[in-house]
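Lecture notes, unit on protein representations.

Consider one protein chain, 257 amino acids long.
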Amino acid sequence: MDTLTLWQLAALAAASALVGFSKSAVSGANTISLAVFAAVLPARESTGVLLPILIAGDVLAVLIYRRHAHWPTLLRLFPAVAAGVVAGTAFMMWADDAAVRTSIGAILLVMAGITIWRRRLAVTGREATEESGAPPMRGGGRFKARSYGVLGGFTTMVANAGGPVMSLYLLSAGFRKLGFLGTSAWFFLIVNTSKVPFSVGLGLIDAQSLLLDACMLLFVLPGAYIGRKCVDRINQKLFEQLVIGATVLGGLQLLLR
C-alpha cells in the first residue's frame, strides 16, 4: 500500500464499489474491476487481492437474493467447475506476471466478444420466435453444463473472470432476473470461497493483500446498496454496451502494457 498513489487507491476503491454493484444488479460487470486491479497492481497478485472483495460482494448478494437460487442447476455445474479450478491452479503455478496479465487481457476480450455474439443471437432468436409463434428454446443439458462449468472454473481461478461465462450459461438456460441473480450469488459465494486455499497456497493472499482488502471492503457495501436500489431501473441494453466497451479497453490495455 505504501507504493500506491492516491489516484491508484481511488481507482481500486471505485473498482471495489463496482464489485458490490455488479453482485446486486448486473452480474459480470465486475470484469471492469478485475481490469482495474490488474492495471494498478501486478497482474498475478491482483487476483489474490480481488478475491476477498468478491467474496464480500457474494455474501451481500446471497443475503439479498438467497431465496431465488435454483439448486439443481448449481449441483449440475459444481463438478465441472471444480475441474476447471484445478486446471486454473496448475496454470497459475508456473505462470509469471506477464503471462497472467496477457491471459487476463485475452480472457476479457474473448468474454466481450462472446457477450456481443450472445446478444445478437438473442435478438435473432426473439425475432424468429415472434414470427413463428413458437415458445423460446431453453438451454440445459449435461454437455453444456460441463463445458461452461470447466471454462467458468478455469477463468475464475486465473482471472476472477467467471462472471461472463456463468452469465452466458444462465441466460441461455432461460433464467429471469431474480432467478439469475439468486443462482449466480450462491454459485460465486461457494466457488470463490473454495478458491481461497488455492490462492493462499500460491502466495496470492497474504498479510499485505489482506490489509489492502480491509481498506477496499469499505466500498463494497455502498456499491451493493446502490445496485439493489437501481436493479429495477437499469437500462440493461445501455449498461451492457458500457460494460462491453470498458471491458474491451481494459483487455487491450493489459495486452499492450
